[in-house]
Amino acid sequence: MFSFFRKKEDKSFGEVKKEEPTDYSDATGIAEYFKNETGVTFDKQMNILNNKVMTFCKQRGINSFSKLLSLLDRDADIKQELIDYLTTNETFFYREFKQIEELVSLVKKDSSTVKIMCAPSSTGEEPYSIAIALLEAGVKADKFKILGIDINSDALNKAKRAVYKQRNVRNLSDEIVQRYFYKQDDKFILKDSIKSLVEFRLINIFDASFATLGKFDYIFSRNMFIYFDAQTKARAKGILQGMRKNQEQKIFFGHADEL
Ligand SMILES: C[S@@+](CC[C@H](N)C(=O)[O-])C[C@H]1O[C@@H](n2cnc3c(N)ncnc32)[C@H](O)[C@@H]1O
Predict the structure, then answer these.
(1) How far is the centre of ligand 1, averaged over its atoms, from the C-alpha of 89 (Å)?
(2) Degrees (nearest 5) of the Cα angle 132, 136, 140?
(3) 81, 89, 177, 181: which has the highest count of C-beta atoms within 10 A?
């Protein structure tokens, strides 16, 4: 009797799908998708990628990489979550400060208002460093505009909050910290006077919308190319070069970026 009803149930609810088998064996498709979308390559770190994406899937009840791939194509939220999860956002104030000093001296020589872009800005330390260094050099706040862009939405939310830890401000002198931050317990909270000098946008440098940001006098693009392969670096470089107001102006890359 019981089996009769089971059978009947199976027939009438034929659309009840069989559970797809769990399969986290090969993340190659995810690596390709991620590289196409962001430029970031995991070619030499496939084991790391495999483990990370498996954790990502398990946390969301996605039982295979192929299922994740099909979701990525139609679910913008999952796509953003994966980008936030897989991009590396390490940065700190006054990183490679010599380049910031070079920028400051160029801006001081410039007679007009300048537009500066940090692509990528990650959690904000780089564009805020530029703002602080310019003010410290006596440049008036209305002489410059700074835009920070990044593909990682978590990083940008942190940038907008601008609440940092000791390790983020380790390169700053006590005087600078006192002038530009409030100290609360173990937190360093950037003052609004600096926060208001930087705008942030969530954007992928490979998206067509990147070009709509306009042209910039100075572009910083540090420590992003390290995640790209040679071909992607060349493509990204061309895109960034096209964003300069003056084609003679060099772009500030990080020393590890190896163009
Ligand atoms: C290590 S951080 C560099 C931050 C800062 N420029 C510095 O040098 O300290 C690299 C950043 O590149 C961003 N990124 C990677 N691919 C990107 C893309 N296609 N478009 C925009 N940002 C991207 C990541 O989200 C990450 O925040």
Answers:
(1) 6
(2) 85
(3) 181
* Residues 179, 185, 187, 191, Cα dihedral to 10°: -40
**Strand 144-150 to strand 181-184: parallel, antiparallel, or no bridges (unpaired)?**
unpaired
CA atoms of 160 and 200, how far apart (whole Å): 7
Q: Is the CB of residue 120 less than 8 Å from the CB of residue 85?
A: no
Q: Tell the residue number behind the tokens 């306009």, with chain if given.
A: 214
Take atom 16 of ligand 1 and give the residue whose Cα is closest.
Answer: 38
User: In sequence order, which ranges of 114-257 are alpha helices (DSSP H)?
Assistant: 125-136, 153-161, 174-180, 192-195, 230-241
User: Separation of 153 CA from ligand 1 center, angstroms?
Assistant: 11
User: Could you tell me the distance, in angstroms and rounded to a whole number, from the CA of residue 24 to the centre of ligand 1?
Assistant: 27
> d(Cα 204, Cα 37) in Å, to the nearest integer?
8
Domain boundaries, the chain: 2-86, 97-253
The residue type found at 100 is: I
Residue 10 has pLDDT above 60, yes or no: no
Taking the centre of ligand 1 as the mean of its atom positions, its distance from the CA of residue 204, in whole angstroms, is 9
Does residue 16 surpass a pLDDT of 90?
A: no
Class of domain 97-253: alpha beta
- Give per-residue pLDDT as tens, 243-255: 999 999 999 999 9
Give the ligand 1 atom nearest the CA of 38: 19
